[in-house]
Write a structure and sequence with these properties.
The protein is built from 15 helices and 4 strands. It has 375 residues and is mainly α. Bound molecules: protoporphyrin IX containing FE (HEM).
Length: 375
């Protein structure tokens, strides 16, 4: 299986390494193991037509590359460091029902024919579904009268960790979307040069925001893990769809089952996969060879997990902004009205009322709001 992926993705850096290759003649012989049954054509020759082309189109080394590709001669001079230094292209491979091709080409096909169209469609469908939900239900909440008494929902530290992570996520999501889909919706409008510069800047931003996202994601995970542990009431919440399609919300603790699913599936599982594969792509993990095949596998995993994560967090961002009244205020100021707590997180509110959980956990909130005993 792994060799399938390795071969599948092997041509990723052909463009990177190949662009700088001096058209060295095939001094080094074919040294790769061709698949059984593969008959290599003759090695490229500087024939007459090539010589003519070299004069009429200086710099066009397409014939050389065609020769490298057809003959399987894959060694030359490249600026790619590491274990694959000097290897111009990855070995030829053949998959069931397909012709011989470079693994890089196969990787390109997977990206262009699967990840981009299906991933893009998923994002558009999610956006449309959220739009439809908004137009049919409007902003949720506002049924419970506000009392003017405030409860601390998020401490300063919790909000700082959250917004730090959300900022890094936004940079990553925007730059990632432009890198993946920008050529379809930006390049035709902006033109190649401007689009190229913008993408270059965003790609650099993506590489720097990645590690920040990784660290802040870990802090967010540790900060919110305790209150996201599954409880009995979560099953009822899930079975009733949270009451989202009815009149009343199903009672929940500090976080409801929907938030908990997002936490474990989105923050922990997808977050870990996206971060780990991203660190491979940034070549930040020690002890790896970073072969082209490894990078291609990491790229596909990264792209798929990132698209799934974006789709999940589109729902989260919707609910945290226009989808629910005063949810955003909670994450902005840290405080919610008692009425808001009763409407959206009834069990949490009851725990506070009974004194099981303090209404103000931080000193700042305790001095700014009325104490729990007044609830
Ligand atoms: C970028 C825009 C984002 C907005 C507008 C936003 C908004 C919010 C809001 C309003 C809340 C409070 C919900 C409540 O009171 O129950 C919240 C909670 C939370 N957010 Fe975000 N958020 C964003 C991005 C993110 C990202 C990127 C992550 C993590 C990858 C994240 C993880 C969390 C977590 C863990 C909680 C606590 C609730 C829970 O554990 O499910 N948020 N967010």
């Amino acid at each position: 299986m792994r060799s399938f992926f390795v071969s599948l993705l092997a041509g990723l850096s052909m463009g990177l390494a190949g662009a700088q290759v001096a058209p060295e003649p095939a001094a080094s012989a074919t040294s790769f193991a061709a698949p059984a049954g593969y008959v290599a054509p003759a090695a490229p020759k500087a024939d007459e037509s090539n010589a003519q082309r070299a004069k009429s189109q200086p710099g066009n080394n397409a014939p050389f590359w065609r020769g490298v590709h057809d003959s399987g001669v894959q060694q030359g001079i490249s600026n790619l460091p590491g274990a694959e230094k000097g290897v111009l292209i990855q070995p030829m491979v053949q998959y069931p029902g397909s012709r011989f091709t470079t693994a890089g080409e196969a990787w390109r096909q997977v990206r262009n024919q699967w990840i981009i169209p299906y991933g893009g469609s998923l994002i558009v469908i999610t956006a449309l579904a959220l739009g439809l939900f908004y137009f049919s239900k409007g902003t949720l909440g506002g049924h419970e009268p506000y009392t003017g008494r405030l409860i601390e929902r998020f401490t300063y530290f919790e909000r700082a960790a959250h917004w730090c992570n959300a900022a890094a996520f936004s940079v990553l999501a925007i730059s990632g979307l432009v890198m993946a889909f920008g050529k379809f919706f930006m390049q035709p409008v902006l033109g190649g040069t401007l689009f190229g510069w913008i993408t270059y800047v965003l790609k650099t931003a993506h590489n720097f925001a990645g590690p920040l996202f990784a660290v802040s994601l870990l802090v967010v995970f540790l900060t919110f893990a305790r209150d996201n542990f599954p409880k009995r009431e979560d099953l009822t919440w899930l079975l009733k769809g949270g009451g989202l399609f009815g009149e009343h919300e199903v009672p929940s603790g500090r976080f409801n089952a929907g938030e908990k699913v997002l936490f474990w599936a989105g923050v922990l599982v997808l977050g870990f996969v996206v971060v780990a594969s991203g660190l491979v792509l940034d070549q930040l993990l020690p002890g790896l060879a970073y072969l082209r095949g490894d990078m291609q596998i990491a790229h596909m995993i990264h792209a798929v997990a990132a698209i799934l994560m974006m789709v999940l967090f589109m729902g989260h961002i919707y609910m945290g902004s226009i989808g629910m009244k005063d949810a955003y205020q909670a994450m902005k100021t840290g405080m919610v009205d008692e009425g808001w707590a009763r409407e959206h997180h009834e069990l949490w509110y009851e725990d506070i009322k009974s004194g099981k959980i303090p209404a103000q956990r931080s000193v700042a909130a305790a001095t700014a709001a009325k104490p729990a005993t007044q609830l």
